[in-house]
Amino acid sequence: MAEEGQRPIVVKKIKKGGGHHGGAWKIAYADFVTAMMAFFLLMWLLGSTAKGDLQGIAEYFKTPLKVAMAGGSGSGDSSSVLQGGGRDLTRKDGQLQNGEEASPRRVNMPTAASMQAAQAELERMELARLKALKQRIEEAIEARPALKQFRKQLLLDITTEGLRIQIVDEQNRPMFALAKAELQPYTREILLEIGHFLNDMPNRISLSGHTDATPYASGEKYYSNWELSADRANASRRALVAGGMDEVKLLRVVGLSSAVLFDKEDPFNPVNRRISIIVMNKKAEESALKDGGTIEVTSGAQVRQELGSASAR
Q1: Quick one: where is this thing mainly located (predicted)?
Q2: Looking at the structure, do residues 133 and 205 belong to the same domain, yes or no?
Q3: Which of 90, 182, 213, 214 lies at a C-alpha separation of 20 to 30 Å from 106?
């Protein structure tokens, strides 16, 4: 029993390896890498941010609540690093304001003012061409003895419808045979010459025949001034075409009898027997193509003025 009490006691200790410090270093390294990434990201943002945005960032960190509530640079600015207070609806990207939906691209259409200016320029150029034609005809009348002797019977003027050329009768020199639609030789010569000039212009032509108020003995039932004026207008049309005018240029050929008198004060005045040729401007042409086209009417005062100027030439 005594021997058993003196047996040695052996205590076994397990020695753990102490070559490593566990996984604590991994956490520290991860924190270091994260800090470095944050640092380089901050450096990149500071280097690529405009000066105004930097001021907004600084303002945000000074008073973040104020900036967030009031908005402005650094909070509502869509280009700011820190977005606070929502988008600034007053900021525009190009021509589009924030808060607006993109609309289809507008096509630049001509304004009413530009269209009116273009129309006025076209009318001015057309008027210049008509005045040049008037001058050419007047020069041809003066240069040719066969026409110069009839210059008192040729009245040229510019009206609201265009260039008007009127060939009027004189007491002792009528354009047509008495009560007939037969052209006198000199009248035909005048029309042949005018037809040559008219073909040089692109404008359309209006042609009307007129008589005085002297009635036919047979009255209105058979052959009246209406038929006579229409036949004389057509006889003049054939002479103009023979002179070189393209027939497709004619827009209107009418006989007006004595309805539109040249001299309203004297319906029987020989000057009322006339052929009126109008080189129409664009506006008059468009009006004639529609229902209700108008015909230029000359007043008695204009008649006396034109006859006086014709006699002075």
Answers
A1: membrane
A2: yes
A3: 90
